[in-house]
Amino acid sequence: MSRVPLTVQGEKTLIDEVADLKNVQRPKVIEAIAVAREHGDLKENAEYHAAREQQSFVEGRIAQIDATLSNAQVIDVTTLPQNGRVVFGVTVDLVDEENGNEVTYKIVGDDEADIKKGFISVNSPIARALIAKEEGDIALVRAPGGEKEYEIVEVKYI
Asked: Range(s) for CATH 3.10.50.30 in the chain?
């Protein structure tokens, strides 16, 4: 399997989540199953089936995170040369050439992407257009919604 890029913060978030799943969520589900079993007939016991479904979710998520972490290539952007070039893990301030709107994105791995937080996947059309460009460059983003041009105002290695 190929290595999956992950930021230091993304790795920490996943480690914290798996610790919570193993140390908090899993024991809660086990307790819920035990309580539901005490209610008798399991075939018609909605609490039991809900607890088993939750257990399946928790165990699946643990397996998914463990697989991601085992294949992760953690990249600490603060150790890279800070030369204004856009690379994985940087935070980029952009200006939309068409309307002057400013946006800030952090380029992260697929598992960390969250547009609401401003985290975009390295495989997204915007990130692909930005990679290897430098401060002051214009990036042409070809997305399903059409083409957009962004000026790279600042690249931050944080």
From this structure: 77-156
State the sign of the Cα–Cα–Cα–Cα dihedral 51, 56, 57, 63. positive
Residue closest to 22 by CA, chosen among 50, 63, 53, 52:
63
32-59: pLDDT as tens digits: 999 888 877 777 788 888 999 999 999 9
Q: Which positions ≥6 away from 32 have C-beta within 8 Å?
A: 47, 50, 51, 54
Contacting residues for 117 by C-beta, under 8 A, at least 6 apart: 106
pTM across the whole model: 0.83
Q: Cα(13)–Cα(37) distance, rounded to whole angstroms?
A: 34
Quick one: fold of 4-75? Answer: Helix Hairpins (1.10.287)
